[in-house]
Each structure stands twice: as C-alpha cells, then as structure tokens.
Amino acid sequence: MTKTGGQLIVEALKANGVRQVSCVPGESYLAVLDALYESGIDVMVCRQEGGAAMMADTWGRLSGEPGICMVTRGPGATNASAGLHIARQDSIPMILFVGQIGRDMKEREAFQEVEYRRAFTEFAKWVGEIDDARRIPEFVTRAFAVATSGRPGPVVLTLPEDMLVDVVEAPQARAYTRVESHPGPSQIAQFDKLLKEAQRPMIILGGTRWNEQAVADIAEFADRFKLPVGCSFRRQMLFDHLHPSYAGDIGIGINPALAKEVRESDLLILVGARMSEMPSSSYTLIDIPYPAQKLVHVFPDPEELGRLYRPDLAICAGPAEFAAAVQSLEPPARPIWAERKSAMHDAYLKWSTPPGIGPGKVHMGPIMDWIEENVAEDTIFTNGAGNYATWLHRFHRFRKFNTQSAPTSGSMGYGLPAAVAAKKLFPEREVVCFAGDGCFMMHGQEFITAVRYDLPIITVLVNNGIYGTIRMHQEREYPGRVSGTDLINPDFVAYAKAFGGHGELVEQTEDFGPAYLRARASGKPAIIEVRLDPEAITPAKTLTQIREKS
Question: Which fold would CATH assign to domain 185-350?
C-alpha cells in the first residue's frame, strides 16, 4: 500500500507508542498535520516554538519516552532551540521534527533556509534529514533508539516539504528496541569490596533513565546499608527527603556542611550523575581528573565514564539496572558510617527549614511552610531559573518520584510550559509552577495553552520587579551601579483573567493560603502573584547586605 511521507511519519509515531505531540503549525509540514487529523495522537497547539519544545522536554523527562515536538523551518526551528538545549544538557529523550524547504531549493538561501546538520550539532545527539520518504521508518526508528540509548538526549529530524507529499511504498513501521546496559557480577563484587573497605562512603544520585522501581530499590539499599544519599542539582525527586539517609541536594547554594562531607568522603558512588558544573560547585567538590576520594561511577554511556573524573570502578549501566543488582549485597552487621549518616540527615533538616521573616510584608518562609502542609506528596513542581527557585529547591521536601521538572541548564521560561505538559501527562495530580516575574514573561503566553486544553495548573509567580539573580551578582560585583536589571510588569491578575484563567494577588503573607485554596477551587489555570520585596533576594541575605559586603 502506498502512502505519503506525512502519513508514514505519523504511522511511525503511532508504532512507537506516541500519544502526544506539541507543535506550532507551519506550511512546511502541512502533510504531517493532515496525517495527524484522524490519527488518535493528541496535538497540543502552542503559541511559541520554545514553549512547545519545553513541553516535549517535560514529556520526555516525566515519561521516560521521547517527547515529540513539531515546528516549521527557519525561525520556528531556531525558536525551538531553547528547549533543544535544555534536553541536551539535561539528558532528556526528545525528538524535534522540523519542516524543511523543498529538496530542489537547497543551498540557495531559500525562504527560511537553515542547514540544521551544521546549526544544531551542539544541541542534539543526532541531526538527520529525510530526503527519501521510503526511508522514513528507518530514520524514525533510529531517532527513537538514539534519543533513549546510553545518555539520553534530543534528536532532530528535518522533513523537506516536497518529500512529505511523495507517495511511496515503505516497510510497515515497528517500535524501536530499548537498549539497556547491566553491571557484571565481577563489577558488583568489586563494588561490594570497595564499599566495605570505606569509612566515609556517600551516594550521589542524578541523571535520567530512572523509574519508580529503581528509586524504591536504591532507597531500600541505602536503608539496609545505612548510607547517606545526596541528589544532584534539580534531581531531588530521586530520593525521599524525609528518608533517614537523605543528606540534601548537591547543587547551586549547597549546604556548606554537605559540601564538606562530600569533600571528606573516602568513597563517592555516583549513580546516573555526571557531576557537571552546577552540582560540582564549579568543579571544586571532586578533583579533575583524579578525585581525592575513591570513585565508583555508574553511568549508562561509556563515553561519560572517565571523561572528567577517572573512576576507581567504572560501571556502564543504567541506574535502574544497578539499583536492582545491588539488592543482592549484604550490609555489614554494624556499618561504621551509620552515625555519620544520621548527622548528615539532621543537618539537612535544619538547612531545609525556612526562615520565619524577612524584609517587606510578604515572607516566603511561611509560604513554603504552608505549601508543605497543604499539597499532596505526588504534586508535581516545575520551575525555570532565578533566585525565586531557591525557595523551592531548598525548602520543599520532595517525597515521591516524578514530582519535579526543572532545567539543570538554568533556562528561564521553562516552568510554565513544563507545568502544562506535566498536567497533560498526569491530569489526576496537582501541578504547581514556580516562576519569577522575569522568568514567567519569557513563555507566559503558554498560559493560554493551559486554558485551551483545560489544564488547571497553579502558578506561584514571585514578583520582585527585577531580574533577581543578575541583580544579586550585580550588587556583589558592581555595588550600587544598577544597570539592565529593573523590570516593569503587567497586572498579572488581570493577565490571568484576560486569558480565561483565575488570578490572585498576595501582598501579605497571611493572604497566600486562602488565595491558593481559591485558585485550586476555581478549576481553572491560575496565577497567584506574590509581591515580594526586592530586598528579600535570598533566604539568608538582603540586597543591601550583599551590596554593603561588596
């Protein structure tokens, strides 16, 4: 049976279990849009390609299957590159389909022409262009395999518009085969030996390719061995923060006591983590290339093992496979590190207790306390980048797997589109987006996407009228010389209502709880604008203190 290229693309997506596509439409891939018409695949129409790509990233982040995004050529694709970069740095499986100019127009700088294999090499694991519609099943199968294998990441496939209307015969598409890597028995035995010789061991969890069972397995292992466990930057959902083994998050603004423990450990067990700039405190926690600590590095891609840190034991395996394998190990009768583990957990609890008051009439500490007491343990939190995010990643205690979607790349604008995708994937769960005023406005237009698809997310919009993180650094480096960091904002309550959502304004701390409950009860996408004094720039220091110390 002959089919068009557009039909073959959709057939291949269905064969690989795709349920959701985020997109901004374009004339360059009309044939695919037509094939999607009666396909049974949900098409989420977005308002900007960056937001669409971030939604696909979140879908991949929370489902483990590649998120699918479709955009048009030129400016559509370059807009989407923001989400592509996030997926690359965060190791998220994602496939970006880009409508492309006709094959007979190449190399003429045609309308919106870009050569994506040159432009996107840094952003993707693989960039391919399908010139022959008969090869669509081959290319799409490869795209799914590449996106999910080893260290996951994004793939870009470009689709010349004339190829999509070619009528051809092609093989029936089949699902890709997931490739898993397992630790060998000798590696597990060597790991057991290293662990039992250690005096101050510690586990650090990170990366992707985790699942609920793997998280449960690693928690059980840590519990039996009385091991302290930390989570890499914005991977906090990998371990229950109230588990007696939890020592805290290893990322921006790390607890100094925890940083000291990492440096003084004699055995570090990195599981799924790469320990790049942010979690390694600018590459200072672990020496490169020869760590002061003995290092066991578990990672599913051999190219990462030994790339920065020379491990004493390298295990090329997925975190789920490693977590399952260590269940066979027997702990020492009385682990000598058990007291250290307890002390590290106590230090975490103290560090993660919010401050009571601060500058201004709104205090984020009590607001975080209210959130902890009034949201379910399976609530999904999303955020972009900015100082406001400190309140979430330091003071929220994650309890369950798949309750966090945040960019380790520090990309602003991510939180809102991430919340939209998370609510679509898990409609039965509450989804809360934390955003700053600067962060929100980068993809705030996707609030209408939440309204259109009846996705009642709650956005806690912390408005201090500045680009807070940059202002903090500015006051430290160039005190009193404010340049480029002040903001003028819209009325966010009116903004929410104009889009058909629910809006609340919080100007006193005690107003937050009732505002949140009204937002939840509205059944609509909601924005709760929290007016925060710009002096309250961090939980520990004010802007004035930072300026004067400089």
Answer: Rossmann fold (3.40.50)
* Mean pLDDT estimate for the chain: 96
Helix, strand, coil % over all residues of the chain, rounded to 5: 40, 15, 40
| pLDDT single digits (tens) 86-118 | 999 999 999 999 999 999 999 898 988 899 999
CATH code of 353-549, in short, is 3.40.50.970
Q: What is the pLDDT of residues 477-503, one digit of tens each?
A: 999 999 999 999 999 999 999 999 999
Q: How confident is the model at residue 162, as a pLDDT?
A: 97
Could you count the other beta carbons within 10 Å of the beta carbon of residue 188?
A: 18
Per the document, the length of the chain is 550
- What's the confidence (pLDDT) of residue 549? 87
At residue 357 the predicted structure's pLDDT band, cuts being 50, 70 and 90, is confident
Decide: 10 and 41 in contact? Cβ < 8 Å: yes
Q: Is the CB of residue 410 less than 8 Å from the CB of residue 47? A: no
CA–CA separation, 253 vs 237, rounded Å?
18
Indicate where the chain has its CATH 3.40.50.970 domain(s): 3-168, 353-549
Distance CA 370, CA 413 (A): 25
The span from the first CA to the last CA of the chain, in angstroms, equals 73
Q: Averaged over 431-438, what is the pLDDT?
A: 98
Local confidence band at 1 (pLDDT 50, 70, 90 cut-offs): confident
DSSP codes joined into one string, 81-135? HHHHHHHHHHT--EEEEEEE--GGGTTS--TT---HHHHSTTT-SEEEE---GGG
Its CATH architecture, for the domain 3-168, is 3-Layer(aba) Sandwich (3.40)
Categorize the per-residue pLDDT at 412 as very low, low, confident or very high, splitting at 50, 70 and 90.
Answer: very high
Q: Are 173 and 12 in contact (CB under 8 A)?
A: yes
Could you tell me where in the chain the CATH 3.40.50.1220 domains are found? 185-350
Burial 70-82 (b: 16+ CB within 10 A, else e): bbbbbebbbbbbb
Residue 54, SS3 per DSSP: helix
Decide: 68 and 148 in contact? Cβ < 8 Å. Answer: no
Say how far apart CA 388 and CA 393 lie, in whole Å.
9
What sign has the CA pseudo-torsion 86, 90, 91, 93? negative
Mind listing the pLDDT tens digit for each residue in 61-84?
999 999 999 999 999 999 999 999
| Residue 550 scores a pLDDT above 80 | no
CB 304 within 8 A of CB 276: no
**Of 300, 246, 241, 242, the residue nearest 270 (C-alpha):** 300
Q: How many CA atoms lie within 13 A of 138 on its CB side?
A: 9
| Residue recorded with tokens 């928690």 | 219
